[in-house]
Specification:
- The protein has 189 residues and is mainly alpha-helical.
- Helix content is 58%, strand content 12%.
- It has nine helices and four strands.
- It has helices spanning 10-15, 19-36, 42-57, 63-73, 78-81, 90-104, 120-131, 144-150, 169-188; strands at 108-112, 136-140, 153-158, 161-166.
- The longest helix has 20 residues, at 169-188.
Amino acid sequence: DAFADRANTVYDEMMTVFADIRAQQERLHDLEAEMAAGNHSDEVMQQYGRLQEAFSHAGGYDYETRIQRTLEGLGLGRKYWQAPLQQLSGGQKTRALLARLLLEQPDLLMLDEPTNHLDIEAVEWLENTLREWEGAVLITSHDRYFLDDTVNTIWEMTPVGIQVYTGNYSAYLEQRLARWEYYERVFKE
């Protein structure tokens, strides 16, 4: 269980992804308080400007909105946000873990049967999210419709190695059939 030793709520767990941004936000507030107290030195103003730019560039003004959209998109609406992770069902924990992974925005996202425990709305939201994903995504799934809507390359493991097909799952089926027919023709000749 990925959350077994954590006492966080669902929302608190998502906030841990943004610890650096939250630290920047606290430092911005400290500098604002310092300026409100009358310190308008060039050093403080320059430090505030640099920090505010870095904060904005890192997504500091929209990270809470991203958390909310991700949780809601995966079917963990507001009523779950303050629930302790240990009180979630297995499916809800899977959704929370997937939400955290998506919020972390890794360069390579590896998903094993990501549509398990998701309802139709959450699957559609995930499809849209993965279509816009800027990094690489490696998906293992038996959900042909999901693969049709999310992938652009299929890797098939065969006894002779990995065969690569371009396109979605439907294109893969057509290309694989054409490849088999070609090999059969070559073998007969």
